[in-house]
Structure formats: structure tokens, C-alpha cells
Amino acid sequence: MNFRLVAIGALAALAGVIGALAFVPGAIDGLLPKRGDITVGKALIGGPFELTSHDGKRVRDAKYRGKLMLVYFGFTYCPDICPAGLQVISAALDNIGAQSDKVAPLFITVDPERDTPEQLKSYVSSFHPSLTGLTGSAADISAAAKAYRVYYRKAQDPSLSEYTMDHTSFVYLMDDKGDFITHFPHAVTPDKLAARLKAELEKL
Q1: Most buried pick, 3, 20, 42, 124, via CB within 10 A?
Q2: Bridge partners of 35?
Q3: Is this structure's pTM higher than 0.85?
Q4: Angstrom distance (rounded) from CA 89 to CA 175
């Protein structure tokens, strides 16, 4: 199925389920360095990772220096949240046109057991051509998720024959040095995401 054909308007219907997949309330505030009662410095989100791309190549985060990174954690067996989020990212990149070559959109699986490079390659082909799917060993994924403060766990739904994954569903925007700029909730619109990308691209 080509998920880019999913209507953007359907995102509104998904908003109600986001709470269960987001950070524990107050978690982001807890990641901001503080001096007394004043928040200072940068959020402690992001960091080095070494994973395997959907082309089967080992890649490090340093590969994307010089570009903005859009980092999204999910899994290919996700029925709606992940494809909808990737559709928003794809639409935002289409919106900024030729400037999209200065953005590296990354889809990091939280389900390495099923998401092999081959599975990811087939999946990401339904979205933006610059999207890179990343997987690895359980330890690789755990390290990347820890760096981005991403929650995930395997969950069994009695109505499904396959297990599913509960996970944080933010879109992280990182600068050209790999440092955290901001994050967006799952229900962000393509226009809002594109506007922020354009603003950050002007700083490069």
C-alpha cells in the first residue's frame, strides 16, 4: 500500500491515541539543564548512534552532519500512527522543494526483531525518496532510543495475532551538528513542520 495516499485529514482522528505514546508528563522539562529555577543550556536529547540502513550499510550519526535531521522512531508493522507520521514528514519535505536535500529524514525502528533492512527498504519506499530506514541489533536500538529519550516496549493485543509496539511518537529536529533544536507532536501539520524547516535552513 502507498501510505502517501492516506489523507492528511485523517491525522485529526489519531490525536486521541497520542497521549499513550508520548513522553511521561514533564519528562522533557526534566531533560533541560537548570540553574536554580532557570532553564539553561540545551535539552539532553540526541547523541551518537551506529545503525544499519535499509541498504544494509552500517551508518553513524556523523554521516548526516551538515544537514538538518528529522528523526522519527517507529516500526513497519504499525497500523496507523507511524505511516501517518511519515506521511507528514514526506509532505513537509515536498513543501520545501529543492531545500529538502539539506534535510536527512531518518526512520529508526523500535522493532528490530521484525524490521530487517529488507523489510525497511520495502516500507520506506512508500514515502519520501530521501527517507532512510535504520535498524540494528537490540542493543543498537536500545542505545539510540536512550540517546533520544524514547520509550518503547513490546505489547500483545489479544485481538491481534502479532505483537505490537508501544513507543514515543515525536518527530525530533536536530541541527547540522546533530544537536537538538525542538520536537513536534505526532499531530503536527505538514505546513507547520515545513515552516520550521525553512526557518532553520536559513541559518545554515
Answers
A1: 124
A2: 38
A3: no
A4: 16
